[in-house]
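Today's session is about reading a structure prediction critically. Students often jump straight to the picture, but the first step is always the sequence itself: look for stretches that repeat, for charged clusters, for runs of hydrophobic residues. Only then move on to the predicted structure, which in these notes is written as discrete structure tokens rather than atom positions. Here is the chain we will use throughout the hour.
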Amino acid sequence: MLDSSLGERIFQAALDDKPAEVLGNIDIPHTYLYIRDFAKGLVTLGEREEALGQVWHIPGAATLTTRQIVDMIYEAAGKQPKFRVAPKFFVSLMALFNANMREIKEMLYLFEKPFMVDSSKYEKVFGTDTTPHELAITETMAWFKNRSVQFKS
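Below is the predicted structure for this chain, in token form.
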């Protein structure tokens, strides 16, 4: 959770009133999936015979832009959103010296063009029971706040 694209660099940054560190074009659609929805989807796939031997895309809440989701996170933290967007050149340069940045560079394409997950096949067979972004953000923000309190103690 900490290293996810909406992990520490977004949630903790919002709590600390620091800029969100984001990648790519923040104004294109991007499907973000709440970890609980993903886990629930994996359990469903593991329990159902009709899931075997097929490719499935687990559904999430509505596709938004990165800017929209970050705005929602900062609003939940009671802060004004601030952005620090890592340009492709910077990521490429840092990848020469840092293994984590090499991995980020490999995945950067996911944030440069629209990334929308089509989960219609899953939804048709297993239904849809996704967590709205607002609730997912509230729960994740609470987790980060609790984590911050634990580290300060």
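Discussion point for the tutorial: The chain is about 50% helix and 10% strand.
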